[in-house]
Design brief:
Blueprint lengths: L1 H7 L5 H10 L2 E6 L7 E5 L5 E6 L4 H21 L8 H11 L13 H7 L11 H8 L8 E2 L8 E3 L5 E8 L2 E6 L5 E4 L4 E5 L2
Parallel strand pairs: 1-3
Antiparallel strand pairs: 2-3, 4-9, 5-6, 5-9, 6-7, 7-8
Helix pairs in contact: 3-4
Length: 199
């Protein structure tokens, strides 16, 4: 198991992650990429704790996702099933479980202050923390995608499901974009990855 984990995690996090998986009887499944989520946790009918994590994540995001999902398991076991999935109990558990990993042996120095800030009040997804998300994306394999904040206003782009939009305006922290086929307006986070199309 540690050999498999070593392919997906930062080197100095493998042993501790393995201990957490063992201690909580986690059945970990590394799966093909899902656009809508990095990972998930569920308890099956037989009582097994199933955690899935996308294989395509870079090692730092993989680590955060794995600990995020283990935090669900631990919070449900400690506080009961009636807690909110990303409520105070989960946040406290996630902070406690992540603390031993937020150090220079595990994460690059440039990520440490961003992680420290993020974990003061962790969100349901690290993607909603645009600064941290962009910093983590620099460790992804190179691809031909652009971020919405990088492309000029008036640009036309395609998203993962094939829908085509035009970037129109900035509204507070998100970008207003017009779906070309329907004329409907949608809001995008600045770090949304899109495929720029020729106008």
């Amino acid at each position: 198991m540690t050999e498999v984990l070593a392919k997906y995690l930062p080197e100095h996090s493998v042993a501790l992650c393995f201990e957490l998986i063992k201690a909580h009887h986690v059945h970990l499944k590394i799966v093909n990429e899902r656009i809508t989520r990095h990972g998930d946790y569920r308890k099956d009918a037989r009582g097994f704790h199933l955690i899935t994590v996308n294989a395509s994540l870079n090692k730092y995001r993989f680590l955060m996702t794995l600990i995020h999902e283990i935090a669900h398991l631990v919070a449900f076991e400690k506080y009961g099933r009636n807690i909110k999935p990303h409520g105070d109990e989960w946040k406290l558990t996630f902070q406690r479980l992540m603390a031993p990993f937020i150090r220079p042996e595990v994460f690059p120095n440039q990520l440490l202050p961003l992680l420290a800030r993020h974990f003061r009040n962790p969100k349901a997804s690290s993607d909603t923390d645009a600064t941290l998300s962009l910093a983590l994306k620099q460790f992804d394999p190179l691809n031909d995608k652009n971020y919405i904040f990088e492309i000029p206003y008036g640009s036309v782009f395609r998203i993962h499901n094939g829908k085509i939009f035009k970037k129109v305006a900035l509204r507070l922290k998100r970008y207003e974009c017009l779906e070309v086929s329907s004329g409907r307006v949608y809001l995008f986070n600045p770090n949304a990855e899109v495929e720029l199309l020729p106008n």
